[in-house]
Amino acid sequence: MSLFHEMTKKPWLVDPAEANEVREVGAFFLPAGKVGLRVFLVVVTVIFTLITIAYADRMLFANWLPMPEPWVLWLNTALLIASSAAMQFARNGTKQDDMSGVRDGLVWAGVFTFAFLTGQLYVWQQLVDLGYYANTNTANAFFYLLTAAHGLHMAGGLIAWWRSYSRMRRGASVADLRLSVELCTTYWHYLLLIWLVLFALLLIS
Amino acid sequence: MSNGMLEETQVIPLAEVEEVDLYHAHHWITKYVFCQDAKVIAIQYSATAILIGLVGLVLSWLMRLQLGFPEVFDFIDAESYYQYVTMHGMIMVIYLLTALFLGGFGNYLIPLMVGARDMVFPYMNMISYWVYLLAVIVLTVSFFVPGGASGAGWTLYPPQAISEGTPGIDGGIILMLVSLVLFIIGFTMGGLNYVVTVLQARARGMTLMRMPLTVWGIFVATILALLAFPALFVAGVMMLLDRVLGTSFFMPEMIVQGEMTSHENGSPLLFQHLFWFFGHPEVYIVALPAFGVVSDIISTHARKNIFGYRMMVWAIVAIGGLSFIVWAHHMYVSGMNPYFGFFFATTTLIIAVPTALKMYNWVLTLYKGNIHLSIPMLFCIAFILTFLNGGITGLFLGNVIVDIPLSDTMFVVAHFHMVMGIAPVLVIFAAIYHWFPKMSGRMLHEGWGQFHFWITFLGSYLIYFPMHYLGFVGVPRRYFEIGETAFVPPSAATLNEFITVMVLIVGFAQVVFMANIIISIFKGKPAGDNPWNATSLEWQTATTPPGHGNFGDELPVVYRWAYAYSMPGVEADFVPQNMPPGEVKRTDSATGPVAEDPPELHQ
Predict the structure, then answer these.
(1) Structural domain includes residue A12
(2) Backbone region of residue B554 per phi and psi (left: phi > 0; alpha: psi in -120 to 50; beta: other values)
(3) pLDDT value at position B11?
(4) What is the CATH number of the domain that holds A136?
(5) Which residues make beta-bridge pairs with A123?
(6) Residue-averaged pLDDT of chain B
(7) Which residues from B are below 8 Å from A13, CB to CB?
(8) Which chain A residues touch B209 with a CB distance below 8 Å?
């Protein structure tokens, strides 16, 4: 069903197709959780877009001093890609009714994500040791702001991951885990995409 | 109806609404305190919003006492005056109006009006309220920290908001920003619920275009809020970092008391853009639910279908979309490029088109209607007049050349209070008088309601009409005391005294209103299930107030839109949305199939 088509209807007229029957409920043939996640990802996109626009605006100022890019950021990026791949592996497991695949995928996704977050904190530590404080230049402040915002979203994702993982540990079936693993996978992929955009932005600036 | 449509209908299976696993409370704490039922959450939101709104009201009295009778009240100094201004604005816009329309009415009405048992994510809905409450508490605490609440003005413009000399820069501004961030987190949780419930949890037969306009208004306003609040969130976090960590997102190099600050090259203008990218849609976050509520109430109380339903829906959507490209009309005096000003003036004037369309449709709904001048109807008519007034002065301020001399005068204060203060508040009153019987099972007292209406309506005009004049003669806003000037005549002081007296009188009427609510909860006249003979689903519940799960054993099935009033050939002057066509009683003279719709509308 098209939302646009739906909104062109004239409800004051008797629709011959609906005169004796009533049909349709949801606007999308999707579980509420999936629709909710998509709406939330739109909100997340707006947040990161606005910070990015502000970043681009401030880059034009005269005293903008770009930060160095520690090599650990590349390693962290690889870890995040690995966590996203592991989530996809878990999702494939739910589709194939393969419990061991789901288990391995979830465990590794969690391990890689924890490693990513630890790696990001390590980068912060490195930069602080080198004297790149948030208040010494706005470029530094933006770096900390962007990585913190992304990291907090990843940490929030870990709460959902933990719920799925706990349910699996308590003996939930693959069918019971299917939706939550699918939602986690979508979220992980999306946050990977956001990180790649942010990382590219940090590199080109 | 095209053949294509019919074919499409044949292949789409009839959808069944699955029964959800409804949350059941087993303890009074989970039933009345940490409750996941949207109706309880709605009442919690409403009570909290009204309580903090009363604080905002008292602050406005204090402001007016100072403006009306300067140098009379020793306890009001310049610093506390700016704190009153700031907290009044922020409380009213965010913590009262937004929270009450979306958290209060949204939670109560969406599930009931679309025929759902509850919101789709009830646990998250509950958390949403508690985070909101925390935000309100944090904001309130800021009154009591050293230095007091922020006195930066509700727009919190940097650099002044976090610079030495502004009241509340020690703790007040920090708590204000933390509170805003919390509010947005809480709202996002609730907002996801409202949007997904409308999209995915409607009753069988409740197509999007059969939804009452109240639901449309809240739905689109929630989408606006989900897209606009992130701007305030980002601005709030960045300003917090400027204040706490000494970053320079918004703070430029400055000399304060002869010394250079540690900030460098921040952009105060960037804050203004972020703030108003949120701030202008915020006007419609408040106005769109009000538009929806007014449409439903005047249709019900005029016993007539809403005129131009489809255009009303599209106007709501169009206003929502346009509201994102007008924000810089709040910044004409910020030194922006004149071409920018021209662009934003143009979009601002364009937004008047769908808004005017709604105005005409309300008036045409009333035209030849069987108008019942009940209290909700009175408030709605007052809203139409007030929004028209406020909208027209908006046309003045939307034009750059007129805005510049009027900027920062009392004319602006009068304009935005009419359009997004008084007008939405009138709708809140209309909605409370209209839905209170459903929420409590009892009617509010009619006589006290009349008193409340007339004092509030006429009083508001006596407050804000003179304020436009004060703006024209050049009385600036935000001034603690203007003293003697060459251009402001002495009569302005007399007018200020008059306005202050009116504010106190209107304030007293609100006390009567609160008393009416409290007394009517216990001693009001029993309302029955459907005292207004309304068609929408919330009036068709098995019990009043609606029980847990809203609709008894079976969810309703919807057969028509929510505006089946005074249909020719039908005995009753209303047909509920869930009444099967076969059960609609016809008049003796009617022949043929049941007249589901007015024949003239088939054209």
Answers:
(1) no
(2) beta
(3) 35
(4) 1.20.120.80
(5) none
(6) 92
(7) 597, 601-602
(8) 6-7, 9-11
Superfamily (CATH) of domain B40-254+261-588: Cytochrome c oxidase-like, subunit I domain (1.20.210.10)
Which tokens is B178 given?
Answer: 């933390």
Name the strand (E) or helix (H) holding B80: helix B78-90
Across the interface, of A11, A35, A51, the residue whose CB is closest to B199 is A35
Closest CA–CA distance from residue B601 to any residue of chain A (Å): 7
Helix B309-322 vs helix B352-366: angle between axes, to the nearest 10 degrees? 150
Residue A2 lies in a domain: no
Residue A204 is predicted with a pLDDT of: 85
Domain hosting residue A163, numbered range: 32-204
pLDDT at B92 over 60: yes
B409 - beta bridge partners? B476
Tens of pLDDT, residues B181-201? 999 999 999 999 999 999 999
CA distances to A146, A196, B256, B311, B548 from B24, rounded to whole Å, are: 41, 44, 59, 41, 8
How many A×B Cβ pairs under 8 Å? 161
For chain A, the domain total comes to: 1
* A197 lies in some domain: yes
Other beta carbons less than 10 A from residue B75's beta carbon: 7
* Residue A78 in tokens: 């690889």
B200/A25 touch (CB, cutoff 8 Å), yes or no: yes
- Confidence band of B25 (pLDDT split at 50, 70, 90): confident
Q: What is the ipTM of this complex?
A: 0.93
- For the record, the structure tokens of B413 come out as 């204060």
pLDDT tens column, A40-94: 999 999 999 999 999 998 888 877 888 888 899 999 999 999 999 999 999 999 9
- Chosen from B5, B16, B184, B196 to mutate, greatest number of chain A CBs within 10 A: B196
Residue B267 has pLDDT above 80, yes or no: yes
Residue B260's DSSP bridge partners are B255
Which range has the worst mean pLDDT, A13-27, B270-284, B472-486, B516-530?
A13-27
CB nearest to A138's CB, from B121, B249, B598: B249
In a domain, A124, yes or no: yes
Task: Tell me if B264 and A63 make a contact (CB, 8 A cut-off).
Answer: yes
User: Nearest chain B Cα to A30, which residue?
Assistant: B200
Low-confidence ranges of chain A (pLDDT < 50): none
